[in-house]
Design goal:
This protein has 23 helices and 13 strands. It is α/β, with parallel strands linked by helices and about 500 residues long. The strands form four sheets. A four-stranded parallel beta sheet has the order 1-5-8-9. A four-stranded parallel beta sheet has the order 10-11-12-13. Strand 6 and strand 7 form a beta hairpin. It binds 2-acetamido-2-deoxy-beta-D-glucopyranose (2 copies) and zinc ion.
Length: about 500
């Protein structure tokens, strides 16, 4: 200690004597340069900002500082508890107003808020409900009393049930609980991944009876696009299994019919909202299916893509990766397009897991081997340097869905999300919401907030947001001419957003 102090005193004297910083102390200018170089690697780090953008950027920085020094920091909390705080956050309010480009990872069964499903759809005539043995519900529209099914012995007309029950508000709340994961006490209700996934799949099945009713489907798609539009989103790529839809008399429509409805409703929506570009479908098969069933779906998807090239973007395999079949398991089905000389772009979910080294954990590399166009979640990519390198080199974006990853319990504090690395090194990245109605979100703003404030940290800036929004267009499946058109439309809105907020 004594020796050290003497040395310190001595070197201070030396410094004074030299009159300036010298050996031992790194050159501050070089340090500045390194910090700048490093920052330039992050998402949006090379974006040059206009004077107006710089002004908004420093305002945003101040707001973020305040948010980070508050006692409760939303990205560190469970989203269900953080949601009211986020709603009051000035950063969030700015993000809401920001034109965010495209939503590239949303599932069709969860694109509209459950509030609307319950308050609007279940109030329509001829809606029957049944309570299942495993504490879930089924809905069915029918012009006569439905027959009992294996999962549903007793169907009740909802209108009559509501009339009998005194408190319709409480009843409706209980219905909503069946259709969403959202709850006041997530830590207690969802102690682990298995429990939360079980509830997740139940909610999907419960909603299906409402959504796949043909007249509801039209309103549902329109409403879903509207929710995105109100959140300043201009284009959607929707994962959908194109479920069969049914009429009141039991008539069943096939996938082509459903696809045509999607096309018609989208066209109608664009007519009503000319500053919305449109929507396309990524046809999805569930990983619970067998290889031959997936082969059938792949062949169908190839045909549908040929017949509806404007609407069908490609193909994906969905469902929980951790207890489902791997991409490699489906290799024969997934090689069909190449074998048949057909083009069917893939948009695989891959690496939505914490189980490093498991078979499931190989999905990312397999997705890349099958030439995926984007990687859904890619949560495990940090464990796979080679896959990360490949995805970067081939410009294959990771679809980051922060709230989904947290609610489904891959990570709790979003500052620890592996995408912190991806954002720091400017890996191709887009932000999406996965299953908005199940998580109690709407549009992309909540997920943008989490990515910007939690994952990006203090160094993520307006350039980061701008790049993420523009990425959503760049990495979309749109042909170049439409990409350019969408980018121009978006840029016009972006400039307006800057002008109004700086
Ligand atoms: C239900 O939604 C449809 C379509 O969005 C709308 O036309 C209708 O007015 C709504 N009904 C109620 C009761 O809110
Ligand atoms: C992926 O792309 C590479 C290079 O274009 C090609 O050689 C390969 O056959 C493709 N693989 C599949 C499964 O389509
Ligand atoms: Zn998903």
């Amino acid at each position: 200690m004594f020796v050290w102090q003497r040395w310190a005193v001595a070197s201070c004297v030396t410094l004074l004597w030299l009159g300036r910083v010298s050996f031992g102390v790194p050159d501050p200018a070089r340090r500045e340069q390194l910090l700048r170089d490093e920052a330039s690697r992050q998402t949006g780090g090379k974006m040059s900002l206009s004077i107006a953008e710089q002004k908004l950027n420093s305002h945003l920085h101040k707001l973020k500082l305040q948010e980070m020094s508050a006692t409760k920091f939303p990205p560190a909390m469970h989203f269900f508890s953080a949601k009211p705080l986020i709603q009051n956050s000035p950063v969030y309010k700015l993000i809401q107003k920001m034109p965010k480009g495209a939503a590239l990872h949303i599932h069709s069964t969860s694109m509209v808020s459950v509030e609307w499903l319950v308050k609007n759809v279940t109030y329509r005539p001829h809606c029957y409900i049944c309570f299942t043995w495993d504490n879930s519900v089924r809905f069915l529209f029918s012009d006569k009393q439905p027959f009992p099914r294996w999962d549903c012995l007793y169907w009740q007309l909802l209108e009559a049930l509501r009339a009998r029950i005194g408190d319709p508000t409480r009843f409706d709340d209980s219905l909503m609980q069946h259709l969403t994961l959202f709850t006041e006490d997530p830590e207690r209700e969802y102690p682990n991944q298995n429990v939360v996934w079980e509830k997740f799949e139940k909610a999907f099945i419960a909603a299906a009876g409402l959504i796949t009713h043909a007249p509801v489907l039209r309103d549902y798609i329109y409403k879903g696009l509207e929710e995105l539009y109100y959140d300043n989103i201009m284009y959607l790529e929707l994962r959908s299994g194109l479920s069969r839809t049914y009429e009141l008399d039991g008539t069943i429509h096939d996938k082509v019919w459903t696809l045509k409805v999607f096309q018609e409703v989208t066209q109608m929506f664009v007519q009503d909202h000319p500053d919305f570009l449109g929507a396309r479908i990524i046809i999805s098969a569930h990983r619970a299916l067998g290889v031959s069933e997936v082969k059938t779906v792949v062949k169908e998807a190839i045909q549908l893509q040929k017949d509806f090239p404007d609407v069908v973007a490609g193909f994906d395999i969905v469902g929980r990766e951790d207890d489902g079949r791997t991409l490699w398991f489906f290799r024969e089905a997934l090689s069909l397009p190449a074998q048949l000389g057909a083009t069917l772009p893939f948009f695989f979910h891959a690496g939505e897991t914490d189980d490093e080294g498991s078979d499931v954990d190989q999905n990312i590399l397999d997705a890349l081997l099958f030439n995926t166009s984007r990687i859904g979640h890619g949560y495990a990519i940090a464990h796979h340097p080679l896959a990360k390198e490949l995805s970067r080199k081939r410009n294959i974006a990771v679809e980051l869905c922060p709230i989904s990853n947290q609610v489904l319990k891959l990570v709790s504090d979003l500052r620890n999300h592996p995408a912190v690395v991806l954002m720091s090194e400017g890996h191709p990245l887009v932000i999406s919401s996965d299953d908005p109605s199940l998580f109690g979100t709407s549009g992309l703003s909540y997920d943008f907030y989490q990515a910007f404030v939690g994952i990006g940290g203090l160094k993520a800036n307006l350039g980061t947001l701008k790049e993420l929004a523009s990425n959503s267009i760049r990495y979309s499946s749109l042909p170049t001419n439409l990409k350019n058109k969408l980018h121009d439309m978006w840029l016009e809105k972006w400039d307006l957003f800057i002008a109004n907020n700086s």
